[in-house]
Write a structure and sequence with these properties.
With 871 residues, this protein is of the alpha+beta class. The protein contains 28 helices and 33 strands. It has 5 domains: 171 residues, no CATH class; 105 residues, no CATH class; 220 residues, no CATH class; 88 residues, no CATH class; 162 residues, Nucleotidyltransferase, domain 5 (2-Layer Sandwich). The radius of gyration is 35 Å and the shape is globular. This is Reverse transcriptase Ty1/copia-type domain-containing protein.
């Protein structure tokens, strides 16, 4: 750090403190890319219960170490000399450390001291080179004789710079590494003058004849740190051999990119963008050599050693990962460092080059689509329109096995700055889970082909319907210039609705007809298209392949489509098909692998997701950390429970009642549900079977002892697969089992009628148009079927005459039949089942073990090993 910044040796205390400060805020590979700061403070905060989220260090204030700084003078802070407009308002100094996130340590050479200030502006492309003209900001107060004296001193130094470059020794006789001298202006005289002015002792002169040895270690500041070892060894033939031998790896092995668009830079990459690497350094192989100094040997060895960690008994390090990537290895998500925070891409990030290239490609795509127009900034001020900030968002694009495909960068608008936008202007419909499952059931039954496409930069295809100004992106801005948006960018709150209108209008112009009850699905000539934002699924019967291809060609005329492969993944759901058996399975095994990391010990196995003991509210107050952790667990469970795993619906519903004040028992119950999912993650939701529509409802009367409300649930199955289900607590207190069953029956009937209408709109008609609902309570069936005059007085508190369900039964739209409790498929939505009944429930809802259905392609065995383990 000191050498690269050209700082004097006497500032070593500041350099050491800064090194520790930066080290504590640097993610470590050996710590799963968490920094020591985050690890320590998050753990302490969780123990004290004073934080609701992990404490990641703030790095937005970090600047290039040693860069030029303009610190406001004391007189300026006190508003003195305000009439002297041409006088300097800031000291010229250099960044040497940090006190707080907004207080910096700045070395001011002209003052001869280090100051702490928050009123400072940095020039990150300039560092100290020892030249007096860089730091003398008070020449206007000096006499002409003093200035001429300084010039003569500099000229004299230039003529006799040899002795000044000799190595120096401390009082103990140990040789001290000389201050690196820039090739242009020698700073030695000025540094000596500055040291004497602040009271430092002059060091004894070096012995004659040793200047060459010291000069070997002087580093040009424009050289990358990766080539530091080469610079140290360029003149080793003149150095005296000692016993410090270091074998250096090839620069080509360390730096060459293994992927076309990716490059894994070393951790020690410099942060000053103006510095360029030696173009010949990549292909130079350095052979084992003798290093003249012990510190140099230790430094280079540490630089090349990498971060070592033991993963499943195998020692790996950064250099090893680099070599594997050069051979075509694509790292897993667990091996990758966190992507840069929004708008915080730094040169020291291992994938800086890839993210920077992604930025440039993203901007090029906006140029092609003409997303904006550059205008002067005064136009927005003149019109009184808010100028929104822009922000870079960085992510990794992964394949289906969570392995790296490429780095992505997207320019978005700051959504939190947008005012005066109503809900009607921002709401955009999305494909519901039940509609997606119905489409999968139809695809399984009729052997439909499903292809997936992605619209590149979907939002920017939609024209914007109002005047919006945005600041230019960071790193590409120009003074006095802003952007007038012509297309809907990501981050604009109105963009989703504009995009939905655009694609719907274009599909309508192509002849597609919308499905009334599902605005994200459209039909034409036996081809259906359903979309979720920019993900488009095209479905067709094999006989309609030509019509489907024609639709794709028409879409490509306006949108840039990628993909076209058979549907395998959709919104984190894995789609597995067997065309011969006419089966489709939906699985979330990969997602379950991820969420179970919230549980510390994953070895415990449970046959059921929840114990049969009722959970009660906590009496005292939970800490913020406990609440945050519990909410993360329940949120993770909910995404599984509503998509592919109806077997955990009841457990998740009951656990969700304690989100605001969880206890230790609630935490253990959530862990049990997660562990149950982990050990059954090979289960998939199966579609394909008979053509019947099966609807079942059930209720558990007053099973909640706190408020005496009843639990209810229902399930709908079509073509052998579960389309919709729900487990919840009733809103009102019922006075009998019959009444509780009646409310549950009405809920199931309403959902069934909606899905039947949707099914009809999709062109699917069943032989029996009457909806048959299973119920295990004979009194409830009698209540809705018999005439009012025949009912006993005990049921008069139930409103029968005007009840909607009774009306639908009389119209013969719904039929209610009795099913014994042991055969009731909705039983698992109202109570926790024991092991044997749980296995029967899994069979009823269509959850089957699909471990043998997972196809291991060549090169994917390692990626699937963890998923198949313990299944």
């Amino acid at each position: 750090m000191r050498l690269d910044a050209n700082l004097p040796w006497e500032l070593w205390p500041e350099v050491v403190r800064s090194a520790v400060y930066l080290y504590n805020r640097t993610p470590r590979y050996s710590n799963r890319w968490r920094s020591p700061y985050e690890e320590f403070f998050t753990r302490v905060a969780y123990q004290l219960g004073v934080v609701a989220s992990p404490r990641k260090p703030n790095q937005t204030h970090l600047r290039t170490y040693g860069c030029k700084a303009f610190a406001m003078t004391d007189d300026t802070k006190r508003h003195k000399g305000r009439l002297q407009r041409l006088d300097p308002k800031a000291w010229i100094g250099y960044l040497v450390g940090y006190r707080l996130s907004n207080i910096f340590r700045v070395w001011v050479p002209s003052m001869g001291k280090v100051i702490s200030t928050c009123d400072v502006v940095f020039d990150e492309y300039t560092i100290f080179d020892g030249s007096k003209k860089q730091v003398m900001d008070n020449l206007m107060h000096s006499t002409l004789e003093e200035i001429q004296s300084w010039i003569r001193t500099d000229e004299a130094v230039s003529d006799s710079q040899g002795p000044l470059e000799q190595p120096q020794y401390d009082e103990a006789g140990r040789k001290r590494i000389p201050y690196p001298t820039p090739p242009s202006t020698p700073p030695a005289a000025f540094i000596a003058q500055w040291m004497s002015s602040v009271g430092y002792e002059q060091l004894p002169p070096a012995a004659a004849g040793s200047s060459d040895e010291g000069q070997d270690l002087v580093l040009p500041h424009s050289r990358r740190i990766q080539t530091l070892g080469m610079d140290l060894l360029r003149k080793t033939d003149r150095a005296k051999p000692v016993d410090h031998r270091v074998s250096l790896l090839s620069e080509r092995d360390r730096l060459q990119s293994p992927l076309n668009a990716l490059s894994l830079a070393t951790v020690a990459k410099p942060r000053i963008a103006a510095y360029k690497a030696d173009p010949t350094a990549r292909n130079v192989r350095i052979h084992p050599a003798y290093i003249a100094e012990p510190w140099a040997a230790a430094f280079i060895a540490g630089l090349l050693a990498g971060n070592v960690q033991s993963i499943k008994g195998v020692r790996v390090d950064d250099a090893s990962l680099t070599r594997k990537m050069m051979k075509g290895y694509r790292p897993h998500l667990s091996e990758l460092p966190p992507p840069p925070s929004p708008n915080s891409l730094k040169l020291n990030h291992p994938f800086y080059d890839s993210f920077k290239k992604a930025e440039e490609e993203h901007l090029d795509s906006h140029k092609k689509t003409k997303s904006w127009t550059e205008v002067p900034s005064f136009r927005a001020r003149r019109e009184g329109i808010q100028i929104l900030d822009s922000m870079w968002v960085y992510t990794y694009k992964l394949d289906e096995q969570s392995r790296l495909k490429k780095c992505k960068a997207r320019l978005v608008v700051r959504g939190d700055q947008q005012n005066n936008v109503t809900a009607q202007e921002t709401y955009a419909a999305t494909l519901t889970g039940r509609s997606f499952r119905m489409l999968m059931a139809i695809a399984a039954r009729f052997s439909l082909e499903l292809r997936q496409f992605d619209v590149a930069n979907a939002f920017v295809h939609a024209l914007i319907d109002r005047l919006v100004y945005m600041r230019m992106p960071r790193g590409y801005s120009r003074q006095g210039t802003i952007l007038q948006l012509d297309k809907a960018l990501y981050g604009l709150r109105i963009s989703p609705l504009l995009w939905q209108k655009d694609i719907t209008e274009y599909l309508t112009s192509m002849g597609f007809l919308p499905v009334p009850h599902e605005p994200c699905c459209m039909l034409r000539d036996g081809v259906f298209i359903f979309f979720y934002v920019d993900d488009i699924i095209l479905g067709n019967h094999p006989d309609k392949r030509a019509a489907a291809d024609k639709a794709v060609e028409e879409l490509r005329k306006k949108y840039t489509l990628t993909g076209g492969e058979p549907l395998k993944w959709f919104l984190g759901l894995e789609v597995i098909r067997d065309f011969e058996a006419q089966k489709v399975w939906l699985s979330q095994a990969a997602y379950i692998d991820k969420i179970t990391r919230l549980v510390t010990d994953r070895t415990t196995r449970h046959d059921t997701p929840m114990a049969r003991i009722e959970l009660l509210p906590r009496k005292d107050l939970a800490t913020a950390a406990e609440i945050n952790l519990y909410q993360r667990k329940i949120g993770s469970l909910l995404f599984v429970a509503v998509n592919t795993r109806p077997d955990v619906a009841f457990a998740t519903s009951r656990l969700a009642r304690f989100l605001t004040n969880p206890s230790t028992e609630h935490q253990r119950a959530a862990d049990r549900a997660l562990l149950y999912l982990y050990h059954t993650r090979a289960f998939g939701l199966q579609f394909g079977g008979n053509d019947n529509l099966v609807v079942a409802s059930d209720a558990s009367f007053a099973d909640n002892t706190v408020d005496r409300k009843s639990s209810q649930g229902f399930i709908l199955k079509l073509f052998g697969g579960a389309i919709a289900w729900r487990a919840n607590k009733q809103d009102t207190v019922t006075t009998s089992t019959t009444e509780a069953e009646l409310l549950s029956l009405a809920q199931a009937a309403k959902e069934a009628q909606f899905l039947v209408r949707l099914q009809t709109e999709l062109g699917i008609k069943l032989e029996d148009s009457t909806i048959t609902i299973q119920c295990d309570n004979k009194q409830t069936i009698r209540l809705v079927n018999e005439n009012t005059s025949q009912l006993t007085t005990k049921l008069r508190h139930v409103d029968i005459h005007n009840h909607w369900l009774r009306q639908e039964i009389q119209r013969k739209k719904i039929r209610v039949v009795y099913t014994p409790t042991n055969d009731m498929i909705a039983d698992g939505f109202t109570k926790s089942l024991p092991g044997n009944k749980m296995r029967q429930f899994l069979k009823h809802v269509g959850l089957v073990d699909i471990k043998d259905k997972i196809v291991v392609e060549e090169g994917q065995i390692e990626g699937l090993l963890n998923r198949l383990e313990s299944m």
